[in-house]
Design brief:
alpha/beta; Alpha-Beta Plaits; 6-stranded mixed beta sheet
């Protein structure tokens, strides 16, 4: 079953936060949902969760309309953390799981499974405020998945985490996907989106400006990145025909070029001028595409 948003608009008075958004998020996949601050991502998440009703349009999971009554099917890890610092991990997770309709014994079983998976089984009886930021995030993640949701929304799940904790959470997300959970993933860290997502949507001022498979989005973008390391100056290449942007690097230059033909012309131009240590043509990064589509509004 796919998650469908059909011509969804959300207005707050005269302000339109989400404007005629139509999306289909594939089942059992990690879908990237991107946008600068204020693009409408969080408002969209709150409508999927049933916390806000669309002004126009409908949201459905297969044939089932999504609203507050279906919230037990959805897990949500918000960007703003919401744990009770004075409560013990065990009491907190059991309380939240009971709100989702779980029995205490089932909730404790799931909690212990996740604590073992994150290599912190001794945290069950610790207060949240006694944990590091990274370990608090693991507990927040467990709170979002304890009831085994069919749909999981992750809003900036890796924000502020060290590389070890990022990898642990990333492995957990991939495992959930492999077990059949549909995941909507929002992040400002483009390399995580490229690594995890097959399909994505970039929002700008409440509307989608890019939507589709990552491979096709990169292909449609057209431009390529050319990385050159050489022992001579590459300064003149910034004015070479077909070069869109040039950025000096420690060892040479990174060029955004219009096509592979431009790369061939550049190679012919620089051969014989000195030693070329690296000449690599790469697909455009998601960061390149995001900045071109969203531009100066990216924060």
């Amino acid at each position: 079953m796919a998650l469908k948003l059909d011509h969804v608009t959300k207005r707050f008075g005269t302000f339109t936060a989400v404007n005629d958004l139509s999306l289909e998020i594939p089942d059992k996949e990690i879908f990237g949902f991107l946008g600068a601050n204020g693009a409408g991502k969080t408002t969209t998440f709150r409508m999927i969760l049933g916390l806000l009703d669309p002004s126009i349009g409908k949201i459905s999971w297969g044939e089932i309309p999504l609203n507050y009554s279906t919230s037990h099917m959805v897990g949500y890890l918000p960007e703003e953390r919401g744990l009770y610092p004075k409560l013990k991990v065990r009491d907190q997770i059991v309380y939240l799981a009971r709100l989702r309709g779980m029995q205490k014994s089932e909730a404790l079983q799931e909690l212990r499974f996740w604590l073992e998976k994150f290599n912190v089984p001794d945290y069950e009886n610790k207060k949240v405020e006694e944990l590091s930021k990274g370990n608090q995030q693991k507990i927040q993640f467990i709170a979002a998945v304890i009831h085994k949701p069919k749909l999981l929304i992750l809003d900036e799940p890796f924000s502020g985490l060290d590389p070890v904790n990022v990898e642990q959470l990333k492995d957990a997300v991939i495992a959930l996907k492999e077990n059949g959970t549909t995941i909507v993933f929002s992040s400002h860290q483009m390399h995580h989106v490229e690594e995890l997502c097959e399909h994505l949507c970039i929002m700008h001022k409440g509307k989608p400006v890019v939507h589709g498979s990552l491979k096709e989005i990169k292909r449609a973008f057209g431009k390529k990145n050319l990385l050159i390391h050489a022992d001579f100056s590459l300064e003149s290449l910034k004015d070479f025909p077909g070069v869109v942007k040039a950025k000096p690097t420690m060892e040479g230059s990174l060029l955004q070029i219009e096509s592979e033909i431009v790369a061939d012309s550049i190679l012919k131009e620089i051969v014989g001028k000195g030693f070329i240590r690296k000449f690599t043509l790469e697909e455009p990064s998601l960061n390149d595409i995001f900045i071109e589509k969203v531009g100066a509004s990216y924060e």
